[in-house]
Specification:
Elements: E1 13-15, H1 18-34, E2 37-39, E3 64-71, E4 77-83, E5 89-94
Antiparallel strand pairs: 1-5, 2-3, 3-4, 4-5
Length: 96
């Protein structure tokens, strides 16, 4: 259950264009910087990825990536998962 700190993040957001990905990266970075989100360790199949802080908003990014985050107040978890190579997009969503 989302708290007041992360309630605005709970709805899934489709990542269907580069601009949507850039917006989501900026939003997550702002939440990490203000301490309302914290980065979680990568899933085993994504351990090879650089840290989210190294993900480039306007430049090179991995072809397929998944980053997980957790609300600092209520521990609700979220994931940003994107397949950029083929352009099929991705999603920001809450983890159940």
């Amino acid at each position: 259950m989302a708290c007041a700190d992360c309630n605005a993040l709970i709805s899934p957001i489709g990542i269907d264009a580069l601009a949507a990905l850039q917006r989501q990266i900026r939003l997550v970075r702002a939440r990490l910087n203000d301490g309302s989100l914290r980065a979680l360790p990568s899933r085993k199949d994504f351990e090879h990825l650089p840290p989210f802080s190294d993900l480039e908003e306007y430049g090179l990014r991995p072809d397929w990536f998944s980053y997980r985050f957790q609300c600092s107040s209520c521990d609700q978890c979220f994931e940003l998962a994107v397949e950029a190579y083929h352009g099929s997009g991705g999603e920001w969503h809450a983890l159940v």
